[in-house]
Design goal:
about 210 residues; 6-stranded mixed beta sheet; two-stranded antiparallel ribbon; 8 helices; 8 strands; about 45% helix; about 20% strand
Amino acid sequence: MTKNIKNILSITVILALITSCSTTKEIPNLDEATFTAMRYENGLAGKKKQLLRAGIAPIDTEDSREMDKYDNMYMSFKDKLALTEYMIDKVGKSVLITIPRHSIMTTDFKVDDKGGYLKMLISALKEYKKTYIEITGHTGRIGNVSTNERISKIRARTFAEYLAMHDIATERMFINGLGAARRIADDTTPTGNALNNRIEIKISPIY
């Protein structure tokens, strides 16, 4: 009897593992990149092909209304996200959104839309769908270099997967983790450490 129970339990565990594996969402076309000259340019060329296959064409530079829309993208994101903790900056024609990790994640593996602000961001990303989305994870210096780099990549991927689950095309996304390489504040203070542990989202028009 005891042997039979053990066999049943073993089968149950195996079935549970198979089920969990089969229901895991696969995220195709989610590219890791270093965002350095040649590799990034090659990545963009590959992304354009993916985007066309996904039915997303580049911005029509002959269409003045479409050009105006994407030229004013920064102000649109700034207005939509005005009530959030997010920092919105303009970098050339791109929009850079900096989000403190604590405001959108309960752990590095789980996104939490505190206050419903991510819905606003996702809505804006859907409105401006002819854009690349570069998602970069960052950390402070606490811990060792390789661990921080790994954590930063996990954060970027977790956030990218969250966007994918909310119907943002993965063909648009690049992910990267830079660890503590680009700190923006003093790690020795709680406020500075919170600022360094962040996710940056760069949204760039596709021409």
